[in-house]
Each structure stands twice: as C-alpha cells, then as structure tokens.
Here is the input.
Amino acid sequence: MVTKLAPERHDLIWGSRDTEPWYPNPEGLRAAEVWFPSGELLIKFLFTTDSLSVQVHPNDEQAQQVGKPRGKTEMWHILRADPGARIALGLNRAVTAAQLRSAAVDGSIVDLLNWIPVSAGQTFFVPAGTIHAIGAGIVLCEIQQLSDITYRLYDWSRGRELHLEQGVEVSLLKPANEGPVELPVESTYFRTERVTVNGLLSLAESSANWIVLEGTGTVAGYDFRPGDVFLSDGTLLEIRAEHAVFLKSLELPN
Here is the structure.
C-alpha cells in the first residue's frame, strides 16, 4: 500500500510567498513550513525570508528527563538559496556554559556560530545538541525525529520566549566541524538517499518515505509533483516518470 501524505501549512513571521514549485500558493500566502508527519519522523519544507532563531534540541535521554518521548536529530537538503544565503551549524570555537549563556543574552552568540554559505543540492546533518540557525532566502527539505522540543537561545530581538537554561544545558560547547555531507545520510533514526527515476522504477522493500524534489509522474498510480510525499509500506512500488528526483527516507528502528 502507498499513501500520499497530506500537507500541513504553518505560517510564521519568517515565511515566504515564493513557495513554488514545492507548495502551490496561488493566494500568495506567507508560508513558512509545510509538514508531513510520518511515523516517528517529520518531513518539512521550509521557506525563509528572514533568519530563524538560534536554537538547539535535546537528545532522547535529555528529552525523556522532561517528559517527552524523544529528542530531535535532523537533516537539511537545500533546494534553493539566494546569493549570500547561509546557515549556522555548531560553534566556531569552544566556550563554557556561562560564556554561551552570556552571549545568548547580549546577542554576541551570532559571532560564536559556524556560518556556512549554502547552495542548492547541499545536505547537512544536525545531531541533537548542535546549536543551529537557518538564514533568509532558503528553501530546504528537513527530515527530523517527530519532536516538538526546541530551545531558543537567540531570536534577533523579535520578543519571543527564550529558553536559556534548558538550551545551554543541552548544547555542545565546542566545534564539531559540521559542514556539508554526502548523501546517503544515515543516523540512529533515519537513512536518506537521493533517487532519480527515468522511466519505470519497480521495487518491493521496507517501508520508506518518498519525497518529490523535482519532476512529475505517478507513484502507485497517484500523480505527483514537486513537494509531494508518499509513504510506501513495503509492498510493490511502481514509479513512472521521464525525469524525477526523490529523497527516499527510511525510519530506522531504535
């Protein structure tokens, strides 16, 4: 059985009206995130016109200590990036917890971050505990553990709640040499690879999410376009397309 997952649009202050081709937007809505929950994973498309908050997520053990079932490890695949677009991934030097907290309070945390210019086609892995931020002018596909725990350390003076004590406690306090990685990406929670289909792809294997990045065609008889997400349950899957690009992501048992 193959299920076409229903999108959930989330409008936030940093969202964009330029969401095509991954999210049809004839009304010109300011969409920020489009969600596709799938088992213990959450697939998102993000559209940014402003910088997201500087934030961090706990690991499973830390999340369970505050009554949540799991933490959040994630990955990003860049789909579009304006000139000068950048992300922050980890720190550029080691700090103490007190130094990190002080920098979050006065805004100098921005200068502690490992800023990386990005371009379409790059992939980044973001383990729990890695301080991170996504800049303006980016469209990306995110695959993450299904978790709602986000600790904001800095929010560009927008007035939203910060979570300094919790965030500092779970943050990695030294550089981790984070940068672009090659697909496939494999973690404890998911394995993601790029699949290109020209003609007919027919296979039967374990359950997987098929995320459409480019092209049109059919998946198990369903028409698809960029931004669609399908969940296959391991039965025979047929994809027909002249040229289509997918991220195929498997939820791994843990």
About this structure: The domain at 190-251 is CATH 2.60.120.10 (Jelly Rolls). The longest strand covers residues 237-251. The chain has a mean pLDDT of 96.
